[in-house]
Design goal:
By secondary structure, the chain is of the alpha/beta class. The chain has one domain: P-loop containing nucleotide triphosphate hydrolases (Rossmann fold, 3-Layer(aba) Sandwich), CATH 3.40.50. Helix 1 crosses helix 8, helix 3 packs antiparallel against helix 4 and helix 4 packs across helix 7. The structure holds thymidine-5'-diphosphate. Thymidine-5'-diphosphate binds next to helix 4.
């Protein structure tokens, strides 16, 4: 099974991806825990181009191409081999992040993103969990973390609000695949909701 976790910056995806992987391993599954952008050596090199530097370093189109290139590498080198040998893949972000983030950066980019996806990726996770959290609460979590990977968080609270709306809309358009999970509260409480949703 191929599972993705999605949501705005600071919603707790990485913690929940780890807890989910541990819970599935405890049930005897082989689990590959991975992330985007990244998840394979080439994709991690592309990640550094994306997450560091000034917010206007790339045009929205170039950025969508880079995310898609990283995803293709991640899919070829990590996701598909794991699924082929029967492992469960848990990924911290996948194609929905490009739809929502790059779609929110510039609304008319969605057709470009969808065409790229059809051409280069053409697959969806079996299940996607959107961790839904108020941007102010998410900001408080992300601020406590620090680090150089702040290019996307620098877009601000209004941008995060647009992202939240984007993820909720996306969940409505793909109800068979996507579930929304309330990400407020402590990690154990959210983990219980994740397991119930799955
Ligand atoms: P991520 O590693 O999830 O950041 P964090 O661990 O801080 O939550 O992703 C880095 C940034 O890249 C994040 O702000 C979301 C953004 N992003 C996109 O804009 N498009 C994409 O397709 C992906 C995968 C991520």
């Amino acid at each position: 099974m191929f599972i993705s976790l999605e949501g705005i910056d600071g919603c707790g995806k990485s913690t929940q991806a780890r807890l989910l992987a541990e819970a599935l391993r405890a049930r005897g599954r082989e689990v590959v825990l991975t992330r985007e952008p990244g998840g394979a050596p080439g994709a991690e090199a592309i990640r550094r181009l994306l997450v560091e530097g000034a917010p206007d370093r790339w045009s929205p189109e170039t950025e969508a191409l880079l995310f898609t290139a990283a995803r293709r590498d991640h899919l070829e080198r990590t996701v598909e081999p794991a699924l082929a040998r029967g492992a469960t893949v848990v990924t911290d972000r996948f194609a929905d992040s490009t739809r929502v983030y790059q779609g929110a950066t510039r609304g008319d980019l969605r057709a470009f993103v969808d065409a790229l996806h059809d051409l280069a990726i053409a697959r969806e996770p079996d299940r996607t969990l959107v961790l839904d959290l108020d941007p102010a609460a998410a900001h408080a979590r992300a601020a406590g973390r620090g680090g150089a990977e702040d290019r996307f968080e620098e877009f601000g609270l209004a941008f995060q609000q647009a992202l939240r709306t984007g993820f909720l809309r996306l969940a409505e358009t793909a109800p068979a695949r996507v579930r929304v999970v309330d990400a407020a509260g402590d990690a154990d409480a959210v983990h219980a909701r994740v397991m119930a949703a799955l």
